[in-house]
Structures
1.
Amino acid sequence: MNEMIDQLDDSISALLAGQKPHSPQNAQLRELMQVVNDLRCTPNHEFRARLRAKLLLGSDVTSQSPKSAMLPPSSDRAAIIPPLFSIGPSNLPIRGSHLVLSFALHAVAIALVGASGWLMVEHRTAIRTRVTELIPSSEDYVLPVAPGAIHGGGGGGDQDKLPASHGTAPRFAKEQLTPPAVIVRNEAPKLPAEPTLIGPPDLVLPQSDKYGDPMANILNPPSNGTGSGGGIGSGHGGGIGAGEGPGIGEGRGGGIGGGVYHVGGGVSAPRPIYDPDPEYSDEARKAKFQGSVVLIAVIGPDGRPRDLRVMRSLGMGLDQKALDAVWKWRFAPAMKDNRPVSVQVSIEVVFHLY
Amino acid sequence: MKATEHDTAERRLVEAAQRDPRCFAELYEANFDRVYAFVARRVPSREEAEDVTAEVFHQALSGLAGFEWQGPPFIAWLLGIASNLLARHWKRAGNQLEVLIDDIELEVVAVDADRQTLFAQLLDQLPEDQRRVIERRFFAQRSIRDIARDMGRSEGAIKQLQFRALETLRAQVRNRHE
C-alpha cells in the first residue's frame, strides 16, 4: 500500500514539474492519475479572481506567477492597444476621464497658441506702434548730476598769487617724475628729470622751451598759478590747468580734459530760449509727410549751436529744414561748476501737420 | 435554452461589452472554464496555463472593439486567440505543433470544462485536511515536505491524506457518471 502511495506521489511530482509520468501498470493508479490530471487542469479560484480583477481594475495578476515562459514578448504586449474608456491591460490604469481632461487641456493650449498668432497678425500695426511708444526719446531723460567730472585732465600750481602764465605743455609720458613749472624753484636738483604729463605718449601737443598753460591769456609775469601740488594752473596734482592730477585741462586723472562736455556728471543740460518752428518742405507738405529729425549739435558757452549733423534722417527735404531751423535757435548754455561750458546734445525736430 | 436564444443572449453581451468594457466581466465568467480547460490540456504546467489564459483574455478585451459577430459563438473566437498563442509558444519552444481553429472541437472543450467544474465542486466536499493538502499540492504547487512542515504532520501522513483525497474524488466522479 505504502509502495503504491509513494509511486503515486512520484507520478504527481513529475506531472506537476511539467514532465510526462510513466504510465502505471496498476489500474487503480491509472484511474488515480486521471484524477490527478483533471486536478492539474482545474483552475485555481484565486487565479480566476485575480485575472478578473486585472481585467476590470488593472491589478497585476501574472506577477504572482512563478514563470513567465508563456508570456508573449514585450513587443507583442506593446502591440495590444488599451481600450480608451476602460481599464486597459497595461499596468497603468487608463481612465476615460483622464483622456477627456488631457484632450481638453491640449485643445485649450492649441487654441491659445492659434489665437495669439491670429491676434499678432491682425493687429501687427497697432502692436508695432505701441512698442514704439514704449521706447521714449532719450531727450526725456535728465541724467543725474554726478559728484565728479567724467573727463580726464589735470591741474597744478604752487599757490602763486598770480594766475598761470601762457606757454606750452611738456610731452606726454606713461609716468611723471617731474611736474612742469614756469618758475623752477629748485634750479640745482640732485636728480634732474624731464618734466612730463601723464597721458598717451603718441599724443603730441605744440612744444616750446617755455612751459605754461596753453589756455592762459597772460604772457607775463610768469607764474605757476594759484593751484597746488606742483605743476601749472589753478588746479592741483602736478598737471596743467584747472583740473586734478598729472594731465592737462579740466577734469581729473591724467590725459587731456576740457573740450566738449556731455550732459550729466556735473554738467547741466542747455535750455532752448529761442526755438522757432522749422518750415515744411513743399514735397513733404504735398505728401502730408510727418515725422521727426534727430540732430546732434554742440551748444557753446554762448548758447549758439555749432557742429550740427543729422543723426536720424527723415527725408523729403525735411533734414535740411531742420538744420536751417536749429541754426537759428539760441540756448541758455550748459553749466558746470557755475561756468558755461560747451556740451554735445541731440535735438529732435518734430514735423507735424495740423 | 435553445442554441439560437443562447446566441442572441451572448451576442447582446458582446455588444454591451463593446459599448462598455465593464460588461466584459460576464463574458469572462461565461467562458473562463472552457478557455482554461482548452489551454491547460495543451501545456505541461499550471503556470503556463495561467499565463496563456490571462493573455487570451487580455487580447480579447483589447480587441473586442474589432470583433464582428459572424455566426460562430464567442468562445470560438477566444479559442482562436488561445490557439494562436499556443502555436507561438510551441514555435518558440522548438516544436511545430499548431492548433488550428478548425481542429478545435468545441464539444470536447465543453466536456473538459464541465469536468473541471465538477472537480471544483467535489473539492469543496472533501474533508478539511484532505482539501488543504490537495489545494496546496496542486494549486500552490507545494512539495510534500513543505506541506508536512506547514501542517505539522509527517510526510507519510501527508501522502496518505493525498491518496485518500484522490480516492474520494475518483469514487465520486465514478458515482456521478454511473
2.
Amino acid sequence: METIELTFTLNQREVTVSVAPNRRLLDILREELHLTGTKEGCGIGECGACTVLLNGRTVNSCLILAGQAQGSEIITIEGVEKAGGKLHPLQESFLEKGAVQCGFCTPGMVLSALALLRKNSTPNVDEIREAISGNLCRCTGYKQIVEAIQAAAGKLQRK
Amino acid sequence: MTADQLTIVGKPVRKVDGVELVTGKAKFAGDLQFPGLLHGYARRAGIPAGYIKSVDVALALKVPGVVDILRGEDIPGPNIMGILPPYDQPLLATEDIRYEGESICLVVAESRDAARAGARAIKIDLEEIEPILDIDEAMAEGSRKIHPGGNIVVSKNLIKGDIDKGFREADVIVENTYRTSHQEHAYMEPESVCAVPESNGRVTVYASCQSPYHLRGHIAANLNLPASRVKVVQAFTGGSFGGKDDVASEIGALAAVAALRTGRPVRIAHDREESIIGSNLRHPSRIYYRTGAKKDGTITAREFKIILDGGAYASESPFVVMKALIHATGPYSVPNVRGSSTAVYTNKTYSGAFRGFGVPQGIYGSECQIEELALALNMDPLELRRKNGLKPGDSTGTGQIFEESVGMQACIDRVDDCRKEMADAPEPDPDRWLYGTGYSGVIQGISNGAEGIDVVGGSVQAMQDGSILVGVGLTELGQGSRTVFAQIAAEVMGVTIDQVTVRPVDTDSVHDSGPTVASRSTTVGGMAVWKAAQNVKKSLVSMAALMFKAEEEMVILKENFAILAVDDSARIPLASVATAAYWTGFPLMDLVFSKAPVADYDEETTQGNIYIAYNYGCHLMKIRIDRYTGRVEVLRHVAAHDLGKVVNPLGVEGQVMGASLTGFGLAHLEKIQMKDGHIQNANFADYAVPTIKDRIPTETISVEDYNPTGPYGVKGIGEPPVAGAAAAFANAVADATGIRFTRLPITRQDIVKALQKQQEDSHGSFSKDWRR
C-alpha cells in the first residue's frame, strides 16, 4: 500500500511519519513512534483505553485514521508528565487516592480527566462522571478515580 | 506485635508500582518489542460443534508476510492444555470441534494484518453437528458425548448430619431454584504473550498472566522440553480476575512453539472478540435449594443441587464445583446438610475461574433462601442472619471449626448500625419510586484449601546500601499484592517503603508458588515474605549488636536505622549495618518455601478441614426502582467484611469497591447473549461492562478479627464482595417490588416486564394506571 507523509505536533514536538493511510492513530503512536502508553482495549471506541487529546479534545485513537492526524496537536500520556520527571497533579492524585489498580485504563483516564480540568477547573461529580463515561475500568469501581480527579482539581486551584 | 506498634502495615500506602502505570511507562506484554518479532493469529472454528474434515493451508502460506502455519500435528508435545485433570483441551483442534472459539491453525506472519489475511486464506472443511447447549440435554441419558468420558465434568457430594431429621425438626421450609448467567471477565487488557527463543537453548515467555508456573508447565510439555528450559516472566498485567490462566497457557504454548520453529520472537495478542469467545467465562448455574427452620429462626436443614454449565472443556470446573459445594450453607451454622455440585460439558465457550469461583452463584441462591425464610417466619432478615451466623467454635458446612477469626456476627452488627441510621430517612416521590433494602451474608474460603497444596516461594535480599529486594511467586494483577508484600518486608526489616523493591515474577527466581487465586496472595504470599524477611533481619540484628556491643535483644530496626532499645539516639544507619554484615560474611538473602496447612477431608462427604481461614461479610443494599421504566438507582451499599487485618486501607477499599461493582454487574447488567452456540455480543458495545454511570456508592467497613494463619492476622478480600453485592441486590429488588426474581442478571427489562405483569394480575388487565 502507498504511504502518506504526516506531520503533527506530538507532546509539543513536531514529528513526521510516513504511514499507510489505513493505519489508525493508535497504531502510529504505538508502532511507528513507540509510545506504548496508549493502550488498545477494544478496538471499537468503547473502552477508552486508547484515549489521547487531539487538538485539546479527547478522542479514541483507535477510531482516528492516519490522515486525520495531519497538522494536529496530539497529547498522549507520555506528554502529561512535567519536565524533569515530575508527575502531573492528576497523576499524583491517582496514586494518592488509590485510583490505579491494574493501570491499563489509567493513561486514558488521566487524559480524559486532563481534558476536563483544562476546560473546567472546578468540576462537580456529575461533570467528572460525564468526562470519564467513555473510559471503562474493571478494577476500581470508579470511586477512587472520581476522588483523584477532585483532588487534582483542588491542587491545580491552589497553584 | 500490637497494631499500634506497626509502622507501615495498616497504613494507606501508594501502589509501589504506580508511577510506571500513571506515566504509561509500564510495559505490558503487548508493549514489548524484540528485533524480528513475528505475530501469531489463530484461525478458529466458528461453529459450536462438529468435526474437521480437511484443512488446506497451501494458499494461506502464499499470502505475503506469512512465515509459518501451525496445526495440531506440529506441536512437539501432546497438544494438550488444561489447568487440571482431565487436561482435555487441545491447543489446536485436530478432529473434534467443541465450541465456536476452538483454534484450528496458528498463522505466524511478519505483521498482525498479514497473519489475519493468512488465517482467512486457510481452507477448512468442517462437518457441523447439532450442538448441545442445554445442561439437561447434556445430562440426559443417551445424549451425544462431547468428550469420550461423557458429559459430566465432575460431581461431588456434601453430607452432614441427618437431613431427614433436620427437615422433621423444621416448622417452616422454603425451596426454590435459582439461575445465573455467563459473565465475562472484561479485564481492560486482552490476553497477550511474547515468546523469545534464547541463545542458550531456553525460551522466555513474557506474558499477561495470572499463574506463570501453570504456563511454564504447559509450555514445556507442549514443546517436549524439560521445564527447566522454560522461563516465564509476568509482564505488567492489565487485570485477570481468574481469566488469564487457561488462555494464557494456550497462547503462551503456541507462541513458544512458533518461536522455536521460526527461531524468531513471536507475539500472540488477542483482540477483544477473541478474548470474550476464546477464553473462559463465569459458569452459568442452576441451583436448587431447600431450607428448613424452626419458628425461632434456627436453621435445621439444607438440601441443595448445584449444576454448573462448564462449556466445552473442564478448565477449572473441578475446583469451582468444590468451592460452590463447600460454600453452599453460606456463613451460617446448619447442622444437617445434603447436596451435590456438578459441572456439565456443553458446546459453549468453556467456563472457569472468575473472581468468587462458584461462590457468587451459590451465595446468591442461598441468600435468597434466607430472605424467603425470613418472610415465611415473619422475622427480620438481619435477625435471622444473626441467629444463624457462624461464631467462633461453630461448625461450617464441612464440619470445620474455627476457634478464632470468625467475624460474622461483627459484620452483621456493623450493617445493623447502618440500617438504624437509615431508619428515619424520608423516601421521596413514592408514587414513582419503589424503595427496597436487601441484605446478604457472605463467606469465602481463603487459600487453595480443597483445591490442592498451598505453597509459595518468597525471597528477601538486603543490599549493602540497606535497600531490600523482594521476590514472590504470586502475581500482581492490579490487586496491589506487590504493595502489601513491600509493606510486610518494610515492616519486618525496619525500613521505609521506598527502600523496598518487589520484582516482577519470573519462574526462575523462586519456588513454584501455584496460581494467584483464592484470595490467597496477602495471606499465604505475605507469610512467605514475612518469613524470608525475618531470616535476613536476623543477620542485620546480629551485626548491629556487634557494632553496638550489645545483646541482640537490645537492637531494634526502624526508620532505616539500627537503634538501641534503651537509647533512641543510639542509631547506626542500616546501610552501614548491611555493609558490615556483608563484609563480615553474614547471609543477606533468604529464599523460603512457605506452606499452608493441608486440607484434610473425606472425599465422599466433603466433611473436614478445608481452608486456613474464611473471610466473612454482610452487605446491605438500598435501591429504588422507577416503577415506570425499571431504572434502578443504588442509594446505599454497605460492605462489611472480616478480613482479619487491613494491610493497606487504600487497597482494601479498591478491592471491595471493584469486586462489588463486578457483583452488581453480574446481578443487574451483564449478560452474554448466546444464540445457537454463538456469542452474539463479543464486544464492549453490546456487552455491558459497568461504566462510571453504573457506579454504586459502596461503603467499605473492615472488621479486623485477627487470623492466626496470616501475617499480622490478615485474611484475603479480593473475591468475597462479588457475592455480597450480587445477592444483596437481588434481595433489594425483591423487597422493592414484592417479586422474587430467580435468575441473574435481573435486568431493567426484566423488572419492567415483571412489574407490568404484577399490575395486570392485580387489575385483571393491563392498567392505564400503570402508565399514569
3.
Amino acid sequence: MVSKAISATHREIMNWLEEVKDPEIPVLSVVDLGVITDITVTDDGIHIELTPTFVGCPALDMMKVDITEALTSRGLPPPQITVSFREAWSSDKISEKGKAALKKFGLAPPPSATLVTDIDILEHANCPRCNGTNTELKNPFGPTLCRSIHYCLDCREAFEQFKPL
Amino acid sequence: MEHLALKELLYKMADDLLILGHRNSEWTGFGPLLEEDIAFSSMAQDKVGQAQALYQLLHQLGEQEPDTVAFTRNAEQFHNSIFTELPNGEYDFSLIRHFLFDTADALRFNMLSNSPYTPLAQLAKKIQGELRYHTLHANTWIKQLGNATEESISRLQNSLTTAFPYALGMFESSPYEQEIISSKWFEGEEILRQKWLESVEAIIAKTQLRLPDVTLTAPVYGGRVGKHSQHLQPLLDEMTEVFKIDPTAEW
C-alpha cells in the first residue's frame, strides 16, 4: 500500500475506537474495556497495542478485525495491531463509564481487583438488578471466560458478574 | 544450548496445557451438571489459549507457527506429562486430576513470574491470575465432595490413589534441569514438587481423603522425553482430524 501522511490524531483514533464494542459484551467499547493500551501514529502508520483480558479470549481476533475496519472506513491505512502482555490487563482497567454500562446491561461490574487479596471476595457480588447484597456464587465460570454466575436471594434471579482479575 | 533448555521448558508447559485443555473440552456437553459442563469447557478454553501464547513465545525463538506446532507433531514429539493425556474417566478422576494439575500449574507460573526471561515472566504473571479461578474451583469441589457422602469420598479416594503416581510424573526433571536452574529461568521441578505437595496436603487435610505416601510412590515418568502412554496418539488423531483434512481450513 502506498503510504500517505496520516492526519488522524491520537484523540480522534480513540474516539473512533469508542465505536468498537467487545463482541461478547456489546455495550462496552474496547476503550472502556481498557484493552487499548497504546496508540502510536507515525509517518509509517498507526500502531495499536492490544492487551487481552484473558490469554485465551476468543473475541480477540474479532476485535482486531473491528478495530481495523473502524480506521479503514475513515480512509486510514490498516493499523498494525500488536497483542501485548507487557502489563497484564486487570478488570480495574475498565473505565467508570464502562462499569456503569455493564451494570445497565445486567452484568455486575467487577469489584476492585486490588482489593481481591483473597479470591473468596467473589462470593460477595452485588445484584445488578435489585442492588441486593444477599447473593451467592453459583459458578466461578460462566458463559464467557470473563464472567461468573451468581444468584440473588433478594430478588431470586440469577445474574452474572464480570470477574475481578 | 541455552535456547534448547528454554524451549524445552516452554514446550512442556504448553503441551501440558494443550493436552489437558483438550481433555477438559471432552466434558463439553457431558458434564454431570450444567455448571460443571461450563466450568470444564471454560478451563479448556483458558488452557488452549495459554498453550497458544506459549507456542507464540516458542515461535519468537525460531520454532514453527503455533498451529503447525500444535497440529503436526507426532506423539513422541510432545513433552506433556503422561498425567495430562490419561482419559477423563468418570467425573471423580477428572476432578482429582484438575485439582492436582492446577495446583502445580498455578505454583509453576507463580515461580515463573520472576523469571529473567521477560516475555515469559509477563505471560506467567497473566496466566497466574487466571489460574486462581481454576484452583478456586478445584479446591471448592474437593472440599465439598471430600466431606460429602460415603460414595463421593470413596470415589475421590480411589481416583486420588490412581492419579497420584501420574501426578508425581509432572515433576520429571528436564534433560536441561541444571542449566535451567543455574540460569535462574526457573527454580526447577524439585522445588515445585515440594511446594505442590504442601499445597495439596493443606487442602486434603480439610477432607476425609488420604494422600498416598509420597515416599512409597514411584512416579510415572516418560512424558517429558516423549515416551507416552497409548492414550496420547488417539487424542492427537482426534484433535488434528479437521486440520489433516484441510490444513488451510478456517473455523
